C-alpha cells in the first residue's frame, strides 16, 4: 500500500529532479546532471512498477477507481476542487507509457544531447514535463487535469524553442503554444459548463450524475453534447487534429528526444486520454461522438497524404503522428475506447522508437535531416536500421507486430462495432495504405540505394550504446507490445480490452442499448478484416518498393506527371498560407491599426498624456501669480479674505 | 453708555486702514505695523462683543491674539533685521527672490 497511499510520489519525483537540476545544475558536471535528471525518472518508473504490483495484488484490479484525496485545493461557494489523485486501469496504462517511454528517452538524451548548450536546462524541462504529464493522467478531477494539461503545454513550448536563438525554433514554440491555446479556450468553457451541469468537477460525481441522465440524440443537442464538443476542441488542439494540427510539424524544431517524448509518445495523446476518460459523457452525446470520429478519420487520411511528399525525415514522422492520432480519435469516436487506448500505447512504443531512430540517423549524418541527402545508410548504422525497420513494420501493421493488433482492432470496430460507419472505415483503410507507403518510402530513401551525400565530408557513425539501448528496448516493445492483447480469434484472451473493461463498461453497455439492431458480427469476419488490412499495407509497401527501389526514376516521373497534386502535397495543402491569409493577417491588421494605433495610442496614451498636458498648461498660466512681488501677495491675501467673508455673509443670509 | 455699533465701526475703520497700508506701503516695518493694526482692530471688536453679550469667550480670544502677536513681533522683527542687513534696504520690492 506504500505507493497507493502516496500516489503523489510519482509526481514529486520528476518535480524534484527538475527543480534540483534547474536550480543547481548550471554549475554541475555533466555526470551529476545525468544522475539527478535521469535518476528521478528511473525512480518514478520503479515507483510505477510497485504501483502496478500493489494494484494487482492488493486491490485485485478493482471495478472502481482508487481515489486518494490529499487536501482541498480551493472552495468557492459550492465549487470545490480537491487535490485528489486516482488510479484505475486507464491510469495504469497511461502512467506506464509516460514513465517507461519517458525514462527510456531520458536515457537516450544523455547521448543525443551530449554536445548541446544548455544541457542542464534540457533535462530540467524534460523532468518538469514528466511531472505535469503524471499530474494529467493521475488527476481525479477536471481542474487538476487542466493543470497538467497546461503544464505539458508550457513544457512543450519551452522545449520546442529550446534552441531559442534560432528564429524558426522560437516561432515554432509560439505557434504551438498559441494554436493549442485556441483549443484550450473550448476546453476551459467545457469545464465550466460541466460544473454548471454536474455541480462538481471530480470524475466520480460527474460520471455518477451523468449515468442517470438520458442519452442525447443526434437530432436533439443538449448540455452534454455542448460540453463534449467543447472538450473536443481542447483535445483537437492538444492532439493536433484538423483543423488545429498545424503546430505539430513545426514543433519538430525542438531536439529530437523532445519530438519523441512530447510530440509523439505522450503529450499529444493527452487529447485521446481525455476523451477516453470522459467516455460516460461522450457516450451520451452521439453527435459529439460522430464529430470525434469524423475529425479522426479525416485527419488520419489527410495527414498521411501530406506525409507522402515531405523530404524532412522528422516532418514525415510528424505527419505520421497526426495521422495515427487520427486513428485513436476514430476509435474513440466509434466507441472503441479500449482500442484507441491500446493504439495509444503501441503507438507510444513504435513512434517513440521511430523518432529516436530518426534522431540517431540525424546524429550519424551530423545534423542532416533531408532524406534526399541520405541513402545507403543500412550498412553503416545497422542497429539503427534494424530497430527502425521494426518500428516501421509495427506502424504499417505487419502481422504480429504491435501496431498490427491495435490498428486492426480500430478498423474492425469502425466497420462492425455498434457505432460502425463504412465511410470512416474506408478513410481508415486508405490511411493504412498510405501509412505503409510513406513509412517504407522513408526507410528506402534513408537506408537503401546509393548514398546521396558527400562521403568525404560526412562521417557516418553508429550512435553510442546509451542511445542504442533505449532503441533496442523500444524495438522489443514494438514487437511484443501487442501480444498480451491477442484477440480471441487469434487464440488469445483479448486481455487489454478485458483489463480496461471497468473504465468503459458503462459506455459499452450504453452503446448496445442505443443500437438494439446491432448484432454481433459473424465469426470469421475478423479474419477477412485482418486480411484486408494486411493486404492494403502490403500494397502500400509494394508501391514504395517500386517507386524508390526498383524504379527510382518512376518516382520522379510520377511527381512530374501529377505535378499539381505533388505541389499541393509538398506545400501541405497550403494550409499554413491559408491560415496566414484568413486569420493571422487580419488579426495583425486589427492589432496594429485598431488596437495599437487607435486604442492604445489614441485612447489610452491620449487620455494619460492629455491629462498631463492639461495640468502643465494650467500650471504654466497660474504660476505667473507667484511673481516675487510681496505686495501682490498681500493683495491676493486680501482678495481671498474678502471673498471668504462675502461668501459666508451671503451663505448666512 | 457707548453703543456697540461705535466700537464695531471704529474696529472696521482701523482694520480697513490696516488693509490699505498692508497692500500699498513698501516699507517692511510699516507693513508690519499695519498687521499689528489689523490684529488690534479685531481685538477691539472681540472685546466690544464680549461686553455686549456678557460672555468671556471674546476676552479669551483677545489674550490668545495678544500672545500670537507678541510671538509674531519677535519673529517678524528678527526677519526684518536680516533683510535690512542683507539688502541694505527696507523696501519689499527688493525682496523678490522667491518666484517662479
Structure report:
The complex is a heterodimer of chains A (653) and B (100). With 653 residues, chain A is mainly alpha-helical. Helices cover 72% and strands 3% of the residues of chain A. In chain A, strand 1 and strand 2 form a beta hairpin. The longest helix of chain A is centred in the C-terminal third of the chain and has 48 residues. The radius of gyration of chain A is 30 Å and the shape is globular. Chain B contains three helices and no strands. In chain B, helix 1 runs antiparallel to helix 2 and helix 2 packs antiparallel against helix 3. The longest helix of chain B is centred in the last third of the chain and has 31 residues. At the A-B interface, helix 26 of A face helix 1 of B.
How would you describe this structure in keywords?
heterodimer, A: 653 residues, mainly alpha, two-stranded antiparallel sheet, 2 strands, B: 100 residues, Helix Hairpins, 78% helix
Oligomerization status of the protein chains: heterodimer
> How many individual helices of chain A?
26
Compute the gyration radius of chain B: what is it?
Answer: 17 Å
Please name the two chains that share the biggest interface, counting residues whose Cβ lies under 8 Å from a Cβ on the partner chain: A-B, 11 and 14 residues
Mean pLDDT of chain A: 89
Based on Cα principal axes, name the global outline of chain A. Answer: globular
How many domains of chain B, as an integer? 1
Determine the CATH topology of chain B: Helix Hairpins
Enumerate the spans of chain B where pLDDT stays under 50 for 5 or more consecutive residues: none
Beta-strand content bin of chain A: under 5%
Amino acid at each position: 500500500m506504500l505507493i497507493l497511499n502516496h500516489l503523489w510520489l510519482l509526481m514529486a519525483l520528476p518535480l524534484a529532479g527538475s527543480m534540483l537540476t534547474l536550480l543547481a545544475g548550471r554549475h554541475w558536471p555533466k555526470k551529476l546532471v545525468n544522475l539527478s535528471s535521469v535518476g528521478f525518472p528511473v525512480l518514478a518508473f520503479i515507483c510505477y512498477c510497485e504501483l502496478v504490483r500493489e494494484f494487482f495484488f492488493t486491490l485485485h484490479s478493482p471495478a472502481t477507481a482508487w481515489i486518494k484525496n490529499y487536501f482541498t485545493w480551493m472552495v468557492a461557494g459550492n465549487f470545490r476542487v480537491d487535490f485528489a489523485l486516482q488510479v484505475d486501469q486507464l491510469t495504469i496504462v497511461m502512467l506506464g507509457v509516460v514513465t517507461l517511454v519517458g525514462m527510456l528517452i531520458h536515457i537516450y538524451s544523455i547521448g543525443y544531447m551530449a554536445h548541446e548548450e544548455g544541457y542542464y536546462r534540457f533535462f530540467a524541462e524534460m523532468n518538469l514535463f514528466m511531472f505535469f504529464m503524471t499530474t494529467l493522467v493521475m488527476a481525479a478531477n477536471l481542474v487538476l487535469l487542466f493543470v497538467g494539461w497546461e503544464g505539458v503545454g508550457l513544457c512543450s513550448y519551452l522545449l520546442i524553442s529550446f534552441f531559442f536563438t534560432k528564429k524558426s525554433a522560437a516561432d515554432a514554440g509560439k505557434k504551438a503554444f498559441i494554436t493549442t491555446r485556441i483549443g484550450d479556450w473550448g476546453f476551459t468553457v467545457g469545464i465550466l459548463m460541466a460544473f454548471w451541469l454536474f455541480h462538481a468537477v471530480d470524475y466520480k460525481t460527474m460520471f455518477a450524475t451523468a449515468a442517470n441522465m438520458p442519452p442525447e440524440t443526434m437530432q436533439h443537442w443538449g448540455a452534454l453534447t455542448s460540453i463534449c464538443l467543447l472538450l473536443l476542441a481542447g483535445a483537437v488542439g492538444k492532439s493536433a487534429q484538423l483543423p488545429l494540427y498545424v503546430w505539430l510539424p513545426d514543433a519538430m524544431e525542438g531536439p529530437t528526444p523532445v519530438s519523441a517524448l512530447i510530440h509523439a509518445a505522450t503529450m499529444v495523446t493527452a487529447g485521446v486520454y481525455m476523451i477516453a476518460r470522459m467516455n460516460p459523457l461522450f457516450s451520451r452525446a452521439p453527435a459529439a461522438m460522430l464529430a470525434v470520429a469524423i475529425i479522426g478519420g479525416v485527419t488520419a487520411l489527410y495527414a498521411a497524404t501530406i506525409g507522402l511528399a515531405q523530404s524532412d525525415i522528422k516532418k514525415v514522422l510528424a505527419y505520421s503522428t497526426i495521422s495515427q492520432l487520427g486513428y485513436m480519435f476514430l476509435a474513440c469516436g466509434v466507441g472503441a475506447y479500449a482500442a484507441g487506448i491500446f493504439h495509444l500505447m503501441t503507438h507510444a512504443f513504435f513512434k517513440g522508437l521511430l523518432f529516436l531512430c530518426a534522431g540517431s540517423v540525424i546524429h550519424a549524418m551530423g545534423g542532416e535531416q533531408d532524406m534526399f541527402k541520405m541513402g545507403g545508410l543500412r550498412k553503416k548504422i545497422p542497429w539503427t536500421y534494424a530497430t527502425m525497420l521494426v518500428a516501421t513494420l509495427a506502424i504499417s501493421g505487419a502481422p504480429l507486430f504491435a501496431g498490427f493488433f491495435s490498428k486492426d482492432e480500430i478498423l474492425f470496430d469502425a466497420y462492425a462495432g455498434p457505432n460502425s460507419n463504412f465511410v470512416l472505415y474506408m478513410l481508415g483503410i486508405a490511411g493504412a495504405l498510405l501509412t505503409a507507403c510513406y513509412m517504407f518510402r522513408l526507410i528506402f530513401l534513408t537506408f537503401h540505394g546509393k548514398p546521396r551525400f558527400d562521403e568525404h565530408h560526412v562521417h557516418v557513425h553508429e550512435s553510442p550504446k546509451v542511445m542504442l539501448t533505449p532503441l533496442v528496448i523500444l524495438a522489443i516493445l514494438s514487437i511484443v507490445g501487442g501480444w498480451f492483447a491477442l484477440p480471441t480469434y487469434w487464440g488469445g484472451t483479448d486481455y487489454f480490452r478485458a483489463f480496461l473493461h471497468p473504465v468503459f463498461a458503462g459506455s459499452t453497455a450504453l452503446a448496445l442499448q442505443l443500437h438494439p439492431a446491432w448484432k454481433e458480427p459473424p465469426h470469421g469476419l475478423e479474419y477477412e478484416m485482418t486480411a484486408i488490412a494486411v493486404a492494403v499495407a502490403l500494397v502500400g509497401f509494394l508501391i514504395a518498393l517500386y517507386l524508390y527501389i526498383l524504379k527510382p526514376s518512376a518516382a520522379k516521373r510520377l511527381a512530374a506527371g501529377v505535378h499539381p497534386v505533388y505541389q499541393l502535397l509538398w506545400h501541405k495543402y497550403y494550409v499554413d498560407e491559408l491560415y496566414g491569409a484568413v486569420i493571422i493577417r487580419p488579426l495583425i491588421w486589427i492589432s496594429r491599426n485598431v488596437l495599437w494605433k487607435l486604442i492604445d495610442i489614441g485612447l489610452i496614451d491620449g487620455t494619460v498624456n492629455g491629462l498631463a498636458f492639461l495640468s502643465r498648461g494650467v500650471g504654466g498660466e497660474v504660476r505667473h501669480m507667484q511673481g516675487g512681488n510681496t505686495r501682490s501677495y498681500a493683495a491676493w491675501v486680501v482678495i481671498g479674505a474678502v471673498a471668504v467673508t462675502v461668501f459666508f455673509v451671503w451663505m448666512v443670509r | 453708555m457707548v453703543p456697540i455699533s461705535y466700537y464695531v465701526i471704529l474696529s472696521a475703520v482701523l482694520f480697513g486702514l490696516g488693509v490699505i497700508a498692508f497692500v500699498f506701503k513698501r516699507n517692511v516695518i510699516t507693513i508690519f505695523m499695519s498687521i499689528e493694526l489689523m490684529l488690534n482692530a479685531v481685538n477691539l471688536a472681540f472685546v466690544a462683543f464680549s461686553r455686549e453679550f456678557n460672555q468671556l469667550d471674546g476676552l479669551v480670544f483677545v489674550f490668545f491674539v495678544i500672545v500670537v502677536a507678541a510671538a509674531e513681533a519677535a519673529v517678524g522683527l528678527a526677519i526684518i533685521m536680516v533683510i535690512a542687513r542683507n539688502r541694505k534696504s527696507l523696501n519689499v520690492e527688493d525682496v523678490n527672490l522667491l518666484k517662479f
